[in-house]
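[INFO] parsing input record for B lymphocyte-induced maturation protein 1
[DEBUG] input buffer:
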Amino acid sequence: MHRKERPYVCEVCSKRFTQMAHLISHLLTHSDKKHYSCEVCSKEFTHRSSWKTHLRVRTKEKPYVCEVCSKTFARSVHLKSHLLAHSDEKPYPCEVCGKVFTRMIS
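[DEBUG] output buffer:
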């Protein structure tokens, strides 16, 4: 895993994974079976987590709260990214000049 090896390969799309469990979960995306659907817009989801995130965004529920400034977020990844603004951590360096940033700049 530390060597970034991805020995598990999807036979459908050739996407590679570090763990067999991730490949198994990914294979559901190629299936016609969608076990979760939104009652409002009828959008269907393969994974429960994607469905739950969709519902939170649709209902404007924001359960992830910044302990520093109380700003709220619908997705944990957005809170995690936001927390960098309150720290000195700047994990994204520019490949050209080396300047570092709290978020990825494209």
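[INFO] Strands lie at 8-9, 16-17, 36-37, 44-45, 64-65, 72-73, 92-93, 100-101.
[INFO] shutting down worker
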